[in-house]
Amino acid sequence: MRKSFNGGLNLHENDVLHLRGINNYKAIETIQPKRVYIPVQQHIGDASEVVVEIGATVTLGQTIATSGDGLGAHIHASVSGTIVAVKPIDQGQGDKSLCVVIENDFQETVCKEKPYSMDRFTQEMIVDRVEAAGVVGLGGATFPSHVKLSPRENIHTCIFNGAECEPLLMADAALMATQGEKLSKGCQLVLKAVAAKEGIIVIEDDKQEAISVMRKWCDCIPNLTVLEVPSIYPQGSTELLFKAVTGLEEPTGGSTRDLGYLVINVSTTAAIYDAVMEGTPLSHRICSVVGDVQNQKNVRFPMGTTVSDMIEFCGGFDGPPSKVIIGGFMMGRTIDTLDASLTKAANGLIIINETHDEDSTPSPCIDCARCVNVCPIGLLPHQLEKNYLKQNWKRMKKLYADRCINCGCCTYICPARRHLAKHIIAGQKIIEERQA
């Protein structure tokens, strides 16, 4: 067991959040909606360009939007059927995203390449197939994986991030407990792609079944091991996980790659296996639907499934809904329409009803320093917020506002209910704009 980091929160007990968790997280169900609304912007970088026309028939896995020469990722049909519209659709935060709308024919006609042997792939071939499949980081960052697998630095160790630290979410745990063989082979492909000598699969200690399964599959792979880390939020942050595993600090303004380490999510790694070995693009993923719904489930969904279809698939709301969050409880985004699409970033869908939604009206700071004690980066959140409200951007910069990872620990612990993380991140953006 490795020592973790200072600060953080234990949010893995359900009664902490007053919300229920999934009882049988390994029972992954698959939804088949009548229509999918697939955004062409599901990744960091430029939006992809639509290459299909209204009225065209598409197969499952067919490319429907391609990335240009800049940073981006291809987008694929997640169902077979007919293109019925290409239009901007509200994604729940006042923003509209261009979407390709496909009427599902429920035939699941598949477009994919033939499977290949792992031995025949070179580093370049692995990267090319990952790019063709539109694989991006599935831990939430959505950084295009073909770029990540082409580092300029020399990588000696890959850290496979299975520390699913957001409370209630069990998508990665379900993957590790049910698809251990695929994940272990995906790890080998990543190691080969970056020419790394060692791989470490890191899992929080409250996921013992996933740990047991992955250790079984890693026993026969000499350069791949499993490491338990304490289940403390935000353990899954790249910076903090790296520190917990290696004892090293991620360089300021740099990356773990500068020290020879590549950190990559386990679901991303499984998607890399599908892309390389099966020729299957990233068109589906697992999402934990939790909180105040009738039946909490891990659901494998086609990209572009609407929030309303997902909630209906889980039996509907349990009580009048107050908040709907895509992503995690701490770092997810609240949406104001159920017509929003679930995308490659959607590892969770959390429903909070009116009973469980607490009043968050802020009161004056009482200088209790709780936010300082829980900050995993070692910042002074209350001071950062005070300077944000004073518009003292120079002082915010001196207090290292740029190091904030927006984990929300400070906001969660604050007895005055102040919106600390929100204000720090807003200040962070203003500082960046002023520097530019």
Q: How is this structure best described in words?
A:
It contains 14 helices and 17 strands. Helix 4 crosses helix 6, helix 5 (180-194) crosses helix 8 (266-278) and helix 11 crosses helix 14 (420-435). The protein has helices spanning 14-17, 123-132, 145-148, 171-178, 180-194, 208-218, 238-246, 266-278, 307-313, 370-374, 381-389, 393-398, 409-413, 420-435; strands spanning 28-30, 35-39, 49-50, 57-58, 63-66, 75-76, 81-90, 96-104, 157-162, 198-204, 224-229, 261-265, 284-291, 297-302, 321-326, 333-335, 348-353. It has a six-stranded mixed beta sheet, with helices on both faces. The protein has a four-stranded antiparallel beta sheet with strand order 2-8-7-4, with no helix packed on it. Among the domains are: 113-278, Rossmann fold; 370-435, no CATH class. 28% of the residues lie in helices and 21% in strands. With 436 residues, it is an alpha/beta fold.
